[in-house]
Amino acid sequence: MAGERIDTIIGEQATLQRGIDITRAEQRSGTVPVISSGGVSSYHDTPAATGPGVILGRKGVVGSVYFVATDYWPHDTTLWVKDFHGNDRRFVYYFFKWMAPRIATMDVGSANPTLNRNHVHPIEIRWPPLPEQRAIAHILGTLDDKIELNRRMNETLEAMARALFKSWFVDFDPVRAKAEGRDPGLPKPLADLFPARLVDSELGEIPEGWEVGPLDSVLVLQRGFDLPATERTSGAYPVLAASGPSGTHNEFMVRGPGVTTGRSGLLGKVFFVAEDF
């Protein structure tokens, strides 16, 4: 009956399709996002799928879910919703976000986590009618808009922090100002922390009192620990992957606060963790 929830399976409401392989060498500069299992990995000049779209991590990061408003290219490491069967696309996204913890346990890979769409399609579900889908998507979308605004604010603050770090500890602006007799523009207790002279070193000019040495003289990097989703027990401790927080566990391996950086898959991302992890 119209307006009532129905018993169905995922494949009848959102048909998944394996993504399309495209190498870096084959990509041409453009504005079309290439979505991999870790999110937007690059841009191309030609889409392979029409947006809005929903994408799931298939290989590498199983359980990740993304919504893209524009046309896009779903990478081979993903599954993308090829047919929404008339359902609200935003609701389908939230549905898969809700299913993500279960999907993450459906890894069929050995060394590299892998998701098979044929294991997802037969899952039995209760499915709401379209008006209810739209209402749910609207409420969750409003919350997501607020989260996105906060994320952008955080990005702005992070950019300001990086610019300040570069000014103080790479360009040595406060030291140069003091050396030239100018006001460094800092409160006196803070300005007093900076010397008033630069000296030569094998790396170029550095503030007086600084030393040049290898990175491992001040910190030691350690490879992370393997913990498949199937072996996790939901708990109070965050699991950090190359792309950031990736679920929780009931035990920790490292005392916080700590710093992590991507080693495989997504390189260059750095995260600060206040608690044990």
CATH topology (level 3) name of the largest domain: Adenine-n6-DNA-methyltransferase TaqI, Chain A, domain 2
What can be said about the biggest beta sheet? 4 strands, antiparallel
Kindly report the average pLDDT value: 92
Number of structurally distinct domains? 3
Task: State the strand order across the main sheet.
Answer: 2-8-5-6
Q: Low-confidence spans: pLDDT under 50, at least 5 residues?
A: none
The separation of the N and C termini measures: 49 Å
SSE run: EHEEEEEEEHHEHHHEEEEEE
* Overall strand count: 15
Helix content, binned percent: 25-40%
**CATH superfamily membership of the largest domain:** DNA methylase specificity domains
Shape estimate: elongated
> Strand-residue fraction?
15-25%
- CATH architecture type of the largest domain: Alpha-Beta Complex
How many helix segments? Answer: 6
At the first level of CATH, what is the class of the largest domain? Alpha Beta
Please give the radius of gyration in angstroms. Answer: 24 Å
Structural class label: alpha+beta
